[in-house]
Amino acid sequence: MLEIENVSKRFGGLLAVSDVSTRIAAGRINAIIGPNGAGKTTFFNLISGMYRPTAGTIRLRGEDVTGLPADRMARLGVARTFQATALFEHATVLDNLIVGHRLRTRSGLWDVLLRTRRCRAEERLCREKARCALDFVGLEHIEERRAGDITQEQRKRVAIALALATEPELLLLDEPAGGVNPEETDGLAALIRKIANRGITVCLVEHKMRMIMSLADRITVLDHGEKIAEGTPDEIRTERAVIDAYLGSDHADVQ
Ligand SMILES: Nc1ncnc2c1ncn2[C@@H]1O[C@H](COP(=O)(O)OP(=O)(O)OP(=O)(O)O)[C@@H](O)[C@H]1O
Ligand SMILES: [Mg+2]
Question: What is the pTM of this model?
Fold first, then answer.
């Protein structure tokens, strides 16, 4: 699906991503792990077109997409969620979905503001799609609730629904279970599995090792911007470099 070759991103004197090569396999759940500041989010920003790489090549389905902006990448089927979920706090969950969908699909901002014919025609479809997305992520029961009043786990589900609105082929999830409790984490893992079962390729960044180990087909480990290991959960679990550099020798969580 996605081939990343010798990609680097430099911020002044800091090499946030350093000469990373990897592949994101279609139809799989790919995970990126690593300590805080390892370059995981920067790596996502490179793949989703938010940042242009300082060096290296990115190919999507064999086509060179290096340096394409985020809106082009979205149209090519790459969607993402952010580590912190920004919502319109005073609007309802459903309205967040409708506006989010509108901003991510054909009617541009001018259409939204001027309410053109195309926009009106899309409005009903939009509402139906928004409901459908909420149903898919298990939030249909809170569609009328104010976004500012929902739980962190529900926010994470809204973020996923928003990303799914563009009908992506590749979905990048930046800490989809960040700040949620263990039972809720299991629920989010089940949702990610359901997305993958629909044929959407998933790539996720997460710190929660139990979730990663049970979900991921393949794990890439970053440390100080460099790829230090890659493999199946079983391979990563026993990889000395990962235990030393990332988890620390007394970190039992990975086992
Ligand atoms: N826009 C930026 N400008 C300057 N430095 C940046 C920028 N974005 C990230 N960095 C730096 O690049 C490094 C990698 O950051 P990044 O956010 O990618 O890490 P991360 O692995 O996602 O960490 P976390 O687990 O805490 O989310 C950090 O040292 C960070 O301070
Ligand atoms: Mg991050």
Answer: 0.89
Nearest to 22, CA basis, from 43, 49, 53: 43
Q: Which residues surround ligand 2, an ion (CB under 5 A)?
A: 40-41
In which residue are the tokens 């199946």 written?
232
Condensed to tens digits (0 to 9), the pLDDT of residues 9-31 reads 999 999 999 999 999 999 999 99
Q: Which of 186, 178, 191 is nearest to 135 (CA)?
A: 191
Mutate to test the pocket of ligand 1, among 7, 8, 9, 11 (most ligand atoms within 8 A of CB): 11
Considering the domain boundaries, does residue 129 fall inside one?
yes
Which atom of ligand 1 is nearest to 9's Cα?
A: 12
Domain region containing 18: 2-86+151-247
Do 16 and 35 belong to one domain?
yes
Backbone angles phi, psi at 129, to 5 degrees: -65, -40
Backbone angles phi, psi at 188, to 5 degrees: -70, -35
